[in-house]
Write the structure tokens for this entry.
Amino acid sequence: MSASTSLIDIKVPDIGDFDEVSVIEVLVKAGDTIKAEQSLITVESDKASMEIPSSQSGVVKELKVKLGDKVKQGSVVLTLEVAGAAASTPESEQKQAVAQAERAQPAIKSVATSPAVPAPAAASFSGSADLDCDLLVLGAGPGGYSAAFRAADLGLKVVLVERYATLGGVCLNVGCIPSKALLHVAAVMDEVKHFDSLGVSFGEPTLDINKLRTHKEKVVGKLTGGLAAMAKMRKVTIVRGYGAFVGTHHVEVEETIGTSQEKTGKKQTIAFKHCIIAAGSQAVRLPFMPEDPRVVDSTGALNLKKVPKRMLILGGGIIGLEMGTVYSTLGARLDVVEMMDGLMQGADRDLVKVWQKLNAPRFDNLM
């Protein structure tokens, strides 16, 4: 150990009302370089699990705990080698800060005297506009229509550009709303299966997939129709088509028709004072997957053309498992492929464990 480093003990901080908790996971090993606030171990009580972070950056010299150990507030987790600056006194820290500021002065001067890099020139538009507005909003999803309606309420002249036939974006048309409509049906079907043990028996359900699809479309239509009425009430101008910037204050919109995004070739130019880009996102196509009607993304899955006997889901995230749950209840067997080390990454792991245990009968393979 050099003179500029020192060894400190990293201890378990205040963990609330818990007396002793069990170590269920060790996340670092001797020799690892760690950062402040990096998780070191995972502990679990009868109520919850939590990760214990490091209070310092440095190199792990020795672990003081192992799987199954009981720890409490003040227990030593590991010994950490830290740079001398990390353990320096306030006086030495102040001296270091002054020295760093003095060394930084020449750099500041050189930056201040260096020539500025010119910004790239924006495209210019010299033609005439077909429409003009105070605010143009590109994209009519939840972000776009909310901004457009609020701006109109405040007295601005607003144009809302959307390439699809209805407002609402992915969420209302091919996302949250239709999927929840189908999940509600699936939840009711699953619920009544348990009533037999309570003394109430129902016959096996018969599926009319066309009626189910119509139900989903009615739910979507009611909400998107409501948005159209709200836009009309606020005098927000709706322009359908693809928008592309042709100048700093001009957008060219190529008209689309039908239920998809078929271009007509007709174009119009809109002049604006301000613009909000709320273009949203769409599912990416995996390059290794073949062009085949059996391969669908989340939008295709919501179309409910048929219920297969078996279904492979690439991606064990919330969207894939959500649609998988619907198809499973309707009669499909599921296989799931997920490249990460668990389903629904980003969700609370304790909740995922409960969900996975409850839904295990749906899956033949989790890979």
Observations:
- The longest helix spans residues 209-233.
